Amino acid sequence: MLTQSQAWKVLEAVPDPEIPVISVTELGIVREVELRNGGLHVVVTPTYSGCPATEVIAQSIRDALVDAGAGAVTVETRLAPAWTTDWITDTAKEKLRAYGIAPPGGDAPVGPQPVRFVPRKLACPRCGSTDTVRLSQFGSTACKALYRCQSCLEPFEYFKPI
Amino acid sequence: MNQQMNSPEHIEYVTRIGDNALILGQRMSEWCGHAPVLEEDMALANMSLDLIGQARMLLAHAGKLEGKGRDEDQLAFLRTELNYRNLTLCELPNQDFARTMVRNFLFASFQVLLWERLLTSSDSELAAIAAKSLKEARYHAQHAGDWVIRLGDGTVESHARAQAALDYLWPYTAEFFVTTPADDAVAAAAIGPAWSELEAAWEALVLPVLVEATLTVPARTPFKSFGKFGRHSEHLGHLLSEMQYLQRTYPGAQW
Fold first, then answer.
1. Does B43 touch chain A (CB under 8 A)?
2. What CA–CA distance (Å, rounded) separates B203 from A29?
3. Looking at the complex, does the CB of residue B201 fall below 8 Å from at least one CB of chain A?
4. With A62 labelled, which of B149, B161, B189, B252 sits at a CA distance of 20 to 30 A?
5. Using a CB-CB distance cutoff of 8 angstroms, which residues of chain A are in contact with residue B146?
6. pLDDT tens digits, residue range A37-51?
C-alpha cells in the first residue's frame, strides 16, 4: 500500500518516454491520484490527440506504482480540461532548455494570426542568441517545431505552446 | 445530457466529424517518405497523427452514443464506403504539394471554426474533444496558411500549381455548408452548429489569405459533392481498400 503522497513521489521519477529529462508530473499530465479499493486510481490527460507516447506513459505509470507496492493500479485518461504547456513546471522548462529544447513561450496561435513566415525570435537553448529561424512548424513530434540558430549554427527544437 | 443526446442525428453528426479527420489523416499520411523536404515530411506525418487521434476520440464517442458495442476500430475498419460520412474534399487524392497545402488550409480553417463552436456543445464529451482538437487545428491552419501564401505568391511554377489546386478544390468546399435535416435537430439540441452557420466566418478566414497569396478565388457554380451523405467520389473506395486491408484479410485481427 502506498499513500497518496508516496504515489506522487513515485510518479515524479517516471520519465516522459520522448523527453526523458522531465517526468510525467513535471509535464503536467498527471491530474489526480487517489486511493481506490485498496489500490490507486491515476488520472492522466494526453498532450496531443495523436501522441503515440500516451499508451507507453500509462503503462510506465502502472508499472512504477505496482513495483513500488501500490497494489491494483488503474489509469484513466481524461480529456477535459485540455492539457496546456502552461502546466509544465518552471523547473522542467529549465531542464528542457539544458537538454537542448527551447521551452514553450506564450505565443500559442490563439485568435487571428498574422500569416507570414515571421515567427517570434526564440532564444537558442545552446548559445542564447535570438538570431534564430524557424525551419518547420512541426519537428520530430507534433508538440515541437524545428529551428536553427544563425549564431552557433546548431539546429534545435522548440516545445510549442498549446 | 438531454434526451436528444442519443438521437440518430446526434450519432450522424459526430460520425461525420470523426470521418473527416480519419479520412484526411489517412490521405495525408501517404506523404510519409515522399514529401518534398524532410521537414515537411515530418510535419505532414505529425498532422496526420493529430487527425487520426481526433478521429479515434470522435469515433469512440460515436460508438458509445450508438450503444451497439462498436468501438472506434470497428467503425474505422469494418464500415464500407457508403457508410462513411466524410466530406468529399477529404478523400480527394493528394496530387502535388500545392494541392495538399491548399486543401489543408481550406479544411483546417473550417475545423478551427467548428471546434470553437463545439466548445459549448451540450454534449460534454464532444466539447472536451473540441477543446483538445482546437489547439491542434490552429497549428494546422497556421502551417498550411503560411504555405498557401508562400506557394501562391512564389514562383511562376508554384503560383500556377497553387492556383490549379484552388480551382480544383474550391467547388468541393460548398459541401462544408450544405445543411441537412439532421443539422436542425443537432442545432436545436445545442449539440453543435448547423453547417451553414459557419460559411460567412469561414470565408472571412480564408479569403484574405487567398488574396495575399495572389490567388484568384473561383466563382461558385451549381456543383455539389455529397460525401457527407455517403455518396462519395471514386477515390474513397481505393483509400479504404488500403486502410482496411488488414481487417479484410484477417477479420478480427487484434494486436
1. yes
2. 37
3. no
4. B252
5. 115-117, 137
6. 888 999 999 999 888
B3-249 CATH pick, 2.60.40.10, 3.40.50.1820, 3.90.1010.10, 1.20.1260.10: 1.20.1260.10
Q: How far apart are CA A59 and CA A75, in angstroms?
A: 9
| pTM of structure | 0.92
Q: In this predicted structure, what is the pLDDT of residue A135?
A: 87
CB contact under 8 A, A162 and B52: no
Using a CB–CB cutoff of 8 Å, tell me whether A160 touches chain B.
Answer: yes
Phi, psi of A56 (to 5 degrees): -65, -40
Are the Cβ atoms of B131 and A139 closer than 8 angstroms?
no
Q: Side chain identity at B106, as an amino acid letter?
A: L
Distance from CA of A115 to the nearest CA of B (A): 6
Percent of chain B whose pLDDT exceeds 70: 98
Quote the pLDDT of residue A157. Answer: 93
Supply the CATH classification number for the domain A4-83: 3.30.300.130
- Per-position b or e across B86-109, b if 16+ CB within 10 A of its CB: bbbbbbbeeeebbbbbbbbbbbbb
Q: Do B133 and A109 touch (CB under 8 A)?
A: no
**pLDDT tens per residue, range A131-157:** 999 888 888 888 899 999 999 999 999
